[in-house]
Specification:
Blueprint (H helix, E strand, L loop, with lengths): L13 H15 L2 H10 L5 H23 L5 E3 L3 H12 L3 H20 L2 H8 L2 H23 L2 E4 L3 E4 L5 H18 L5 H15 L23 H5 L3 H25 L11 H18 L4 E3 L3 H6 L5 H13 L4 H8 L2 H14 L12 H17 L2 H18 L8 H16 L4
Antiparallel strand pairs: 1-4, 2-3
Bound molecules: guanine.
């Protein structure tokens, strides 16, 4: 094991790596609760999503640990699951058809990962768009958290307003949010997970949470409940594109951030980037076949790195813990059914995703405005793909008008025209 993971070379040992793996697992295990909660709200059977979430997290994270050998975990991303749900709800599409879009995005991602297109796309996309998109998703999921908790409600004249803070569910969500924030401010490992459990215990005693047991035989996974032809009959190309772009940007940004933090980059580059991308692409494709939205490298991996994790052993430990979770479906199912328990997580993870805004050059207006336009429109239109489109349209336009048109990669102009045509003539979600 020492040799396989080059533990000594990376200045680490088995004990540190195991502790780092446990830390990362504790910070991201909420996804096993929140992902089925979000996706079952649009009709996908809870147990199908639960098993699909475990399967994609285990496959993606194992590939990251054993093949790419990074202390980085992969699982279905927050934001993309919410976007998935909004596409199904808004257009009356079946979830099987939207799984078809994830499947095609996964295959394209596989193709891009093994060719030079990967580098070209990553190099061509400016920081304002890359980080604007991740941050916009952060606001988008935080808004969903606020709505689910009843903290923000519809209003005729202002569209949204503050909800009734006396409702039991809203009070529980606020209590859960503050408990988790206190744990995070105290740097407690697994603060999000512990916060959810404490909120669930309070919820149980005040009668908002019902559960029948903790352990059971794992549910049977559902395989290939998917409609690929529907993607073409409904022309869902912009949805495929949104899934594809977001997974590529998100994984790139997270890989750069976490490998830099771990001191694993070489001359500013990520060694074995191709293998890491392949891990994510495979997890996304397999996930769509079992029933979940696209997977991505998790920012929460930074907690394991902070605990000393430097090698693929950390990720392997995370994968083993995810695999062991399949026996806890009754407990997870009960917790997922109470929005007040999952809403604080959506709000807090939303904050994590805003981190990239620091990398946008706010002093240069033609860089700042496209990023601003993305983070403004994503939550307000409840659409990640609309936010991406607005970013890709405004960026080259701003550069052209400010006389810097030549500094923009031709690919961005092509994307800009495609998004403009799509937004005007084929508005999907
Ligand atoms: N980078 C990243 N980390 C996450 N953690 C939870 N969801 C996400 C996501 O969508 N992207």
């Amino acid at each position: 094991m020492e040799k396989f993971f080059s533990l000594k070379e990376n200045g680490t040992d088995i004990r540190t790596e195991v502790m780092a793996g446990v830390t990362t697992f504790l910070t991201m295990v909420y996804i096993l609760i929140v992902n089925p909660a979000l996706l079952s709200s649009i009709g996908i059977p809870f147990e199908q999503v639960f098993m699909a979430t475990v399967i994609s997290a285990v496959i993606g994270t194992l590939l990251m640990g054993l093949v790419a050998k990074y202390p980085i975990a992969i699982a279905p991303g927050m934001g993309l699951n919410a976007y998935f749900a909004s596409v199904v709800g808004a257009q009356g599409l079946s979830y099987q058809t939207v799984f078809g879009t994830v499947f095609i995005a996964g295959l394209l991602f596989l193709l891009i990962s093994v060719t030079s297109l990967r580098k070209m796309i990553i190099d061509a996309i400016p920081n304002s768009l890359k980080y604007g998109i991740t941050s916009g998703i952060g606001l988008f999921i935080a808004f969903i958290g606020l709505k689910n908790a009843g903290i923000v409600v519809p209003n005729e004249s202002t569209m949204v307003t503050l909800g009734d803070l006396h409702q039991p569910g809203t009070v529980l969500a606020l209590a859960g949010l503050f408990i988790t924030l206190i744990l995070m401010a105290r740097n407690i490992k697994g603060a999000i997970f512990i916060g959810m459990i404490v909120t669930a215990v309070i919820g149980y005693f005040i009668g908002l949470l019902d559960f029948n047991g903790v352990l059971s035989v794992p549910p049977t996974p559902v395989f290939f409940d998917i409609d690929i032809a529907g993607v073409f009959t409904h022309s869902l190309y912009s949805v495929v594109f949104a899934f594809l772009l977001v997974t590529i940007f998100d994984t790139t940004g997270t890989l750069i951030g976490v490998t830099e933090q771990a001191g694993l980059t070489k001359d500013g580059k990520i060694p074995r980037a191709k293998k890491a991308f392949l891990g994510d692409a495979i997890a996304t494709t397999v996930g769509s076949m079992f029933g979940t939205s696209p997977s991505t490298a998790y920012v929460e991996s930074s907690t394991g790195v902070a605990a000393g994790g430097r090698t693929g052993l950390t990720a392997t430990v995370v994968a083993i813990l995810f695999a062991a979770s399949i026996f806890f479906s009754p407990l997870i199912s009960a917790i997922s059914s109470v929005a007040a328990i999952t809403a604080p997580v959506l709000i807090i993870v939303g904050c994590f995703m805003m981190e990239g805004l620091a990398k946008v050059n706010w002093k240069t207006f033609d860089e700042a405005f496209p990023a601003f336009a993305i983070i403004l429109t994503m939550p307000l239109t409840s659409s990640i793909s609309t936010g991406i489109a607005i970013g890709f349209i405004t960026y080259p336009l701003m550069k052209l008008f400010s006389g810097k048109g030549k500094s923009v990669h031709p690919l961005i102009y092509i994307f800009g025209v495609i998004f403009l045509v799509q937004l005007i003539f084929f508005p999907t979600h």
